[in-house]
Amino acid sequence: MSRRGWVNSGLVVVLILAGGLALYGYRSLQSDITQLTDARSTAESNAEDLRSQLQQNEQALTAARARLEHRTSSADKLEAELDRLRQTLAGAKADLQTAQQQAEKLKSQLETAQAALAKREGQVAEQGSQLKRSRDQIAALTAQLAAATKHVENLSQRRNALTSDLNTATAKQTDAQNRIAELEKQLAEANAALADARREVWQHQSALASATEQRQSVAEQYQQAREQLALQQARSQSATETINVLEARMAQEKAATDNLQSRLQSLSHEKESLVSRLEDGTTVIKLPESIVFNSGSARIGKAGRHTLTLLADALKSFPDHLISIQGHSDSRSIAPALQSLYPTNWELSASRAASAVRVLREAGIDPSRMQAVGFADTRPLVKEIDTVSRRKNRRIEVLLYPSQFKIKAYRPGGREPAR
């Protein structure tokens, strides 16, 4: 009985210990389950955050791919433009080589002309010697002419005297008539000699005038050849300088348009390029309504002034271009509340263009280089079928015409510019 009591007591103690161990194990298990549940919640929360971040990364990747495709398209366009400019440069270099060849040809002609001039100067010198001899002969003949004239005067005096003697001395009439006939013969011979001398003098004077004209003609040809050579050399130098200036200007304009394109793209939600260039060299800058004006208004707010300030900075790289600011609207009628200010879309588009010109003038752009034009809804970019398409047609376009100011109307969609 005592043993059974002890056994029962031991069993009770064992049961108590087993119960305590079971309770401890249960509590430990319950704590582990709680920790596992918390860890699972944390893991699920982290997984959800990772899923959200993954979706954001996928969206960012999609946007980056779109921007990359757009930049690739812009790069292709710029590469095409660069190829065209390279072809233009090649043509200018070919013209320069042609000009150099012409300069060499003119130089050869100048050397030939110089040799001819030297030869002709020798001939002129020889003719000068002959002219001097002719002048000496003319002087001698003139002296002879004077002597003959004096002799003729003496003979006339003698004839007069003889005639007087004839009147007073009839007896000597026959002898006097013979002497008069002889004197008249001598007078005729003297007159003939005088005519010959005058003819010879005239011939020598003609030869002298011809030699003088020939010398002047050769000198003029030599001067013309030198002037042509100098002009050709100046043209060659000018062509080289013009090519260098054009290359520097094109690089400056390209950097300015690239910078403006990137800065405008950051302000706009448009995916296509906002800066483009036509085949005739005209640069077209498109400013959507959303980054310049409020809908239905020509008032330029703070954001619009910031945009036009960026544009003014870029326009400083185009100092020789005419700037045409052109306003465009959609096809919807003006709201009744605004019709007192803008009766039609013509007034609205023109007022927007004028407001942009005013801000650009305040930013330092010369007003004599600018013009404001309103086109209303006559030149849409896209067909209007919804809100998005109408928003695309509401814009300001800034056209930069090259220095020759050949005004051409910009036609959207790559069509031929109107002439």
Can you characterise this structure?
This protein is an alpha+beta fold. The protein folds into 2 domains: 98-244, Orthogonal Bundle (Helix Hairpins), CATH 1.10.287; 268-414, OmpA-like domain (60s Ribosomal Protein L30, Chain: A), CATH 3.30.1330.60. The protein has 5 helices and 5 strands. The chain has a 5-stranded mixed β-sheet. Strand 3 (322-328), helix 4 and strand 4 (370-374) form a beta-alpha-beta unit. Helix 1 (2-168) packs antiparallel against helix 2 (173-267). The radius of gyration is 55 Å and the shape is rod-shaped.
List keywords for this structure.
single chain, 419 residues, alpha+beta, Helix Hairpins, 60s Ribosomal Protein L30, Chain: A, five-stranded mixed sheet, 72% helix
